[in-house]
Design goal:
Layout lengths: L2 H4 L3 H13 L11 H17 L7 H10 L13 E2 L2 E2 L3 H5 L2 H16 L3 H13 L12 H12 L4 H13 L4 H10 L13 H22 L8
Antiparallel strand pairs: 1-2
Helix pairs in contact: 2-3, 2-4, 3-4, 3-8, 4-7, 4-8, 6-7, 8-11, 9-10, 9-11, 10-11
Length: about 230
């Protein structure tokens, strides 16, 4: 590793990601605000790493955490969104973003002076961050961290806020958003999707907060009118 590999300018990378998303129509505000989500994945990765007693390539994980969803800037929004929500076949387009993100990340990191080895390691994490469960055998610790952070970033306060943002974007009433949260389980709650025991502990803590918030706001619609 050269010096920049060991000491990435994380803020500079995040500013690149943020400006890339701000240039899109859908991914810089509301429920799909990837500027916020990329930041949360980065911070979630740091939290997981801080609780591990294993050796981790920290710069690789953190750089990949910031860049992991950059491929969403290249997916076709018309194949994902309708006026009332996501299209029926949105997942097919959505699932392209890991592979689309690799060349964007590679070009940026190459211009910034990172080594070929470092870029290859980051690219591997970006390309495979959505392949959960047993899809990949013998996952590296770094990939396990990124996959877990990607799920954890969407629970707690984020898991509470984003359904309301989704409702606002696609004309769902507030009552509808509350009822949605009452019945829909956060995907991070599926323990078979989380790789590491420390991640499960972090997720459990965040779920308790999320459930408490949902219980409190549910009282607001405890009415004989409904």
């Amino acid at each position: 590793m050269n010096q920049i590999d060991k000491n990435p300018n994380y803020k500079e990378i995040y500013n690149f990601v943020r400006s890339s998303f701000e240039a899109t129509e859908h991914f810089y505000h509301g429920p799909f605000d990837e500027t916020y989500y990329s930041l949360r994945v980065y911070e979630s990765s740091k939290e997981i790493i801080s609780k591990l007693d294993q050796k981790v390539s920290v710069p690789v994980v953190l750089v990949a955490s910031i860049l992991h969803d950059i491929g969403k800037t290249k997916i076709n929004p018309c194949n994902v969104f309708s006026l009332t929500g996501k299209n029926e076949n949105a997942a097919e387009e959505w699932d392209k973003h890991p592979k689309l993100g690799v060349p964007i990340a590679q070009e940026y990191l190459r211009k910034a002076g990172y080594s070929s080895e470092f870029i290859s390691q980051v690219s591997y994490l970006i390309e495979n961050h959505d392949l959960r469960g047993d899809t990949i055998k013998n996952k590296s610790l770094e990939l396990q961290i990124l996959q877990d952070a990607d799920l954890i970033a969407d629970c707690g306060f984020a898991g509470f806020i984003r359904p309301f943002l989704y409702g606002g974007k696609f004309s769902r009433q507030i009552i509808g958003s509350i009822k949605y949260m009452q019945k829909e389980a956060n995907r991070a709650g599926q323990e078979d999707l989380l790789n590491l025991d420390v991640s499960k502990v972090i997720a459990k803590r965040k779920f308790k907060l999320e459930q408490k918030l949902i219980q409190e706001i549910s009282k607001d619609i405890n009415s004989d009118l409904l």
